[in-house]
Amino acid sequence: MNGVFGIDVNNLLPLFVAIPLGVAFLMPMAAKLRRERLLDVVALLAALSLFALAVMLMRVASGSTVYWVGNWKPPIPGICLVSDGLSRLMLLVVNVVAFLITIYAAEYMKRYTGIGLFYSLFFSMIAGMNGVVLAGDFFNLYVFIEVASLSSYVLVAFGIEAEQLEASFKYLVLGSISTLVVLTGVVLLYSLTGTLNMAQVGREMGRIAAAGAGAKAPYLALGLFMAGFALKAAMVPFHAWLPDAHPAAPAPVSAMLSGVLIKAIGVYALVRITFNVFGPSIGAAWVLMTLGTISMVVGVFLAVGQWDLKRLLAYHSISQMGYVVLAFGVGAEVLANHGPVAVASLAVFGGLFHMMNHAAFKSLLFLTSGAIEYATGTRQLKELGGLAKLMPVTSSCCRIASLSIAGVPPFSGFWSKLVIIIAVVQAGHVVLGTIAVIVSFMTLVSFVKVQRYVLGGEPSEKTAGAREVPAGMAIPMVTLSAVCLVLGVVVFLYPPFTDSVIGPARDVVVRGLEYIGGPGPMGKP
Amino acid sequence: MLVYVLCLALMAVGIYAMVAKKNVVKIIIGLMVTEYAVNMLLVVIGWRTGGVPPILPESSGGATTRFLAHAVDPLAQALIMTSIIVSLAVLLVSVALAIRIHQKYGTFDITEIRKLKG
Amino acid sequence: MKTPPGMSVIVRTTTRVVSGFILIFGCYVLASGHSGPGGGFAFGVIVALALLLVLLAFGREAAKKFIHRRIVALAAGSSVLALLVIGLLGYLGTPEAPGGSFFLQFLPQGKPFQTLSGGTALLADLAVGVMLAALIFGVLTSLSLFHGRQRPDTSEPVEEVAPNHVDVPKEE
Q1: What are the residue boundaries of the structural domains of chain B, listed by start?
Q2: Mutation target vs A (from B13, B38, B110; most A CBs, 10 A cutoff)
Q3: In the predicted model, what is the mean pLDDT of chain A?
Q4: Apex CA A456: angle with CA A455 and CA A462, to 5°?
Q5: B23 has which bridge partners?
């Protein structure tokens, strides 16, 4: 049932980490051969194989599988990789976006030297993200978060200009603090439960909650985890690193960071810990909802006043991640109150769907801003103009992505925001739903401004000589805009796709890790 | 009990250094102190009173149960090993960044490294 | 008479004698890793420290000639690749576990406490240790070479690099 060509697909789970790590270690040595084409080909082949593996896993595998590394099964404390619906969805998103961005990077990074080192760091970031998504125990989670984060710190500083170094240092200090907070949480959980395996910790949590009414230590661990992962997911007030780090990075790296990194190591980890390990509780749900709402509002209000294109996009990332976290928070609250499961399912579905959409349109936005910078050399809104005529492919992709993020039908963003707002209102939070609608409107205002200054009007002096970008950069942008156009409609009009791709992920979040037989309830206090 | 409080105090010292100091090198030192404090917390949590190091002595010839009743937790120490290597990597990256920052800005003072605004 | 770079005569003579012994001690720590304290991480750090002793005692130029940068980079890259290959070889499987597994111990494990009883543990330790040694030595050598190119008497930033250009040190 899980096999393809006779190979059990679940045996190939370590390859998601092994292939990009192998490429990452191979690149610095291969770079000495001084054949840039060879490096590009190797990188593209590796990204393609990851993409194929992710799609194959999605189509073939079902249910939850645990893969014990080295065949060290319990009771020996072994390292396990877990493939369940949520992991498979995240793997699909990460690897598809990574493949498209690798194609883009092969063309864009020709303006930089040291491309072997770039690929090395890029692929170790992908390896880290794949590892986080597959991790079945806490220490694996911590190590892979660090791998991905370290690679991203260095990638942000890749161009070695003064601002990039400053942004990277700020990002490094804040990111390391958050990882240390997470590690403290892991240490605390280990001392409470004596095990590091997520499923076993979940079971122990249930026992601790049922036994003693005054058990406060798990709440401390949960609080530490939330603080650490909220920083990685760029929630306000932990967002200070993002507006500096994301614009400073080269364009493919920005697209990777905003498009998948804050989801894979931020939101995914937050959801996994809150729903599956600790079980949805009222306190956690309210924290998530508050963080989500504040991030939505602050992100969009700070974004409207920006005049630097990439900084504006970075603030919008904060805002959209606020949407996702709000959706998950509402789902957690409904589950904790033992409300109708259908409403919780809808909220979780909205959150997951918006994550997928955001990966598509935010990476597309950063790729187009990179293309604009490639062609004109600037990214200040006041210096751009008239690109609609000069760069038709880029500007239509930019338009599609802007309409998608602003929530205009029939683009994908509209559908996912609609689901989130409906779920929030059905759960009884009409005020939050109204705030979500207002934020969506402000997003539209902000992107109308972008459209007017960047694409409309007459060409300014900086953009006069702009030509269309090469095919290597255009193909990924066109593909992603096709995804933005089509994904929303497909999800709603073609149920088999939804049921096989997003359905299992939603079930995992709502019903808990199947292989421990249900959520580990921290319960209502 | 006191040992745990001391670990947390060490973490607080490290975080104070990261927050209040203006020199980039001191911030890096604060980061390292915080990392070591978390590692020390791990050591302390794995401790068992009157415990022996978790290395199976040759004389026991492979019998583990009586030994395990005395030994300090080995899993915690494996975790510390990994965590130390990770913090080594963070240290190397941050020092390299600090050197480059000094090249570009000419100073280690973070109040003057402020080209990014908004 | 111009004094050679590095430290004094006493340190240099001691280093000539002692660094070899430190390396041998590192190898002993590696070999007894699976039956006593030690293992790959300690091996890597000890070897790195032995090489670092040479760097400190004899100065930068001698360290560049002692182990060429290419060998250090090659050692770092290939040892990690070797670790991955060991992991992937686990897919071959053993009679008890057909179909294999990532990082399965596929080498025969002898009696405990013998030197060769660790299965793949010894090989993995070696790979990790060589990588760690190459990493620490390589990074610290490149950082010290970096420092040497800066003009010590001015406080201006040294190189104005054009944007969109990665400044990779020319000696890599």
Answers
A1: 2-48+65-105
A2: B38
A3: 85
A4: 65
A5: B109
- Say yes or no to pLDDT of A126 above 90: yes
Cβ separation B96–C157 shorter than 8 A: no
Residue of A nearest to B19 (CA): A173
How many CB pairs lie under 8 A apart between chains A and B? 83
Domain count for chain C, please give it. Answer: 1
Selecting from A176, A183, A306 the residue whose C-beta is nearest the C-beta of B83 gives: A183
Q: Is the pLDDT of residue A464 over 60?
A: yes
Using 50, 70 and 90 to split pLDDT, how confident is the model at A103? very high
Determine the pLDDT at residue C104: 67
Chain B residue at shortest CA distance from C113? B58
**pLDDT(A492) > 80:** no
- Average pLDDT (B25-53) is 88
Does pLDDT of C4 surpass 70?
no
Residue C167 in domain: no
Say what the pLDDT of residue B88 is.
92
Nearest CA in chain C to B92: C139
Chain A neighbors of C102, CB-CB under 8 A: 14, 18, 67, 69-70
Helix (H) or strand (E) holding A80: strand A80-83
Residue given tokens 């104070």 in the structure block: B16
Query: What residues are paired with A3 via a beta bridge?
Result: A8
Asked whether residue C153 is domain-assigned, the answer is no
**Nearest to residue A129, comparing CAs of A313, A242, A288, A256?**
A256
Q: Select from A316, A476, A310 the least CA-distant residue to A394.
A: A476
Mind telling me how many Å the CA of C113 is from chain B's nearest CA? 7
Residue C9: count of CB within 10 angstroms of its CB: 10
Please tell me which of the candidates B18, B34, B115 has its beta carbon nearest to residue A166: B115
Binning pLDDT at 50, 70 and 90, where does residue C158 land?
Answer: very low
Q: Please report, as a single letter, which amino acid is at residue A350.
A: G
Query: For residue A97, what pLDDT band results from cuts at 50, 70 and 90?
Result: very high
pLDDT > 80? residue A404? yes
Determine whether the interchain pair B101/A166 forms a contact, defined as Cβ–Cβ distance below 8 Å: yes
**Residue of chain C whose Cα is closest to the Cα of B85:** C41
Average model confidence (pLDDT) across chain C = 73
B2-48+65-105 is a CATH 1.20.1260.10 domain = no
What span, in angstroms and rounded, lies between the C-alpha atoms of A160 and A166? 10
> Between A413 and B118, whose confidence is greater?
A413
The answer to pTM > 0.80 is yes
> Which residue in this structure is represented by tokens 């050197």?
B99
CA dist A213 and A210 (Å) reads 7
Q: Is A143 on the interface with C (CB under 8 A)?
A: no
**Better-scored residue on pLDDT, A209 or A134:** A134
CA distance A280 to A6: 39
Residue A212 has pLDDT above 50, yes or no: yes
Residues of C engaging B, defined by a Cβ cutoff of 8 Å:
35-37, 41, 112-113, 132, 135-136, 139, 143, 146-147, 150, 155-159
Instruction: Inform me whether the pLDDT recorded for C162 exceeds 50.
Output: no
Tokens of A415: 């559908």
Q: How many CA atoms lie within 13 A of C85 on its CB side?
A: 10
**Helices C121-148 & B74-105, crossing angle to 10 degrees?**
20
Determine the 3-state secondary structure of A4 from DSSP.
strand
Query: Do C80 and A71 make contact, defined as CB atoms within 8 angstroms?
Result: no
Residue C44 lies in a domain: yes
Q: What value of ipTM does the predicted structure carry?
A: 0.92
Domain membership of residue C93 as a residue range: 9-106+117-147
Report pLDDT digits (tens) over A159-176. Answer: 888 888 889 999 999 999
For residue B74, what is the nearest residue in chain C, using CA coordinates?
Answer: C37
Residue C166 lies in a domain: no
Looking at the complex, report in whole angstroms how far the Cα of residue A469 sits from the nearest Cα belonging to chain C.
17
Residue at token pair 């070591």: B36
